[in-house]
Amino acid sequence: MSSNIPVLTLDGPSGVGKGTVCLLVAKKLGWHILDSGSLYRLLALSAGDNVDLGNVSQLAGLARDMQIEYVTSGGALGIYLRGENVSEAIRTEATGVLASKIAAIPEVRQALLDKQKAFAQAPGLVADGRDMGTTVFPEAALKIFLTASAEERAKRRYKQLKEKGVSANLSQLTVELQERDERDSTRSASPLLAADDAIVIDTSTLSIDEVCAQVMQLVEQRFKLKV
Ligand code: DC
After folding, report:
1. Ligand 1 lined by 96 (C-beta under 6 Å)
2. What's the rounded Cα separation, in Å, for the pair 180 and 191?
3. Which of 2, 29, 73, 214 is 20 to 30 A (C-alpha) from 178?
4. Cα(219)–Cα(15) distance, rounded to whole angstroms?
């Protein structure tokens, strides 16, 4: 990463609202976005349901060779795999669970490292994920870690699914989120962890607008910007 490109990292567990905050803040700033979870989701989609998680070199090769494209327009992020728009297809719970399993493989993480670093382009980058502040952009000027209780995150996910007309079970969603947190936090390679120099924001009782306002205030202070 070129050290003069401003980078804001937004890390945190599943369902905390990072993606929405990342999009809104990047739009306000006119900066680029790295939705790093989408890379693991794209890999899960490419690998398919019958993937052999033990075939590490094949998965790492697939990670390096994926034909992917990101297109931001009108505040939304379009994600393409081999020319096909998979923005919706990668968001299923099943793809998220497989992504979390694949993401535990160190060789896969290593294979995706340069792809992620390449997103740091002028005028700046908002990077969302689990290890943005600890591993991918350890020299980022501002690192924020968003948290919320698993119950609150499951409620948010439940509401989102209901709004889309998808049937969901709140207690099952809570258990799945806790399992995903456990896997993402306890893996040896780049676990979900707040960087020592990250600012932690507990979003449990905050609206998305309130979280964005706090993030923007920190951005303006740290990068000496007036947006
Ligand atoms: O943020 P998300 O739900 O789209 O991420 C999907 C999975 O990818 C998540 O369970 C863990 C993994 N992931 C990761 O290991 N490191 C990242 N920087 C981002 C996501």
Report:
1. yes
2. 12
3. 214
4. 23
Do 170 and 154 contact (CB within 8 A), yes or no? yes
Give average pLDDT by consecutive 10-residue segment, the chain, 227 residues: 84 93 96 96 94 95 95 84 95 90 96 96 97 97 96 92 89 92 90 94 95 98 90
Tokens representing residue 139 in the block: 């020299």
Candidate from 125, 128, 184, 185 with most ligand 1 atoms within 8 A of CB, to mutate: 184
What is the value of pTM for the model shown?
A: 0.92
Tell me how far the alpha carbon of residue 210 lies from the centroid of ligand 1, in angstroms. Answer: 24
| Ligand 1 atom closest to 184 (CA) | 11
Amino acid at 188: S
Could you say which of 3.40.228.10, 3.30.70.580, 3.40.50.300, 3.40.50.10890 is the CATH number of the domain covering 1-31+123-227?
3.40.50.300
Q: Are 38 and 172 in contact (CB under 8 A)?
A: no
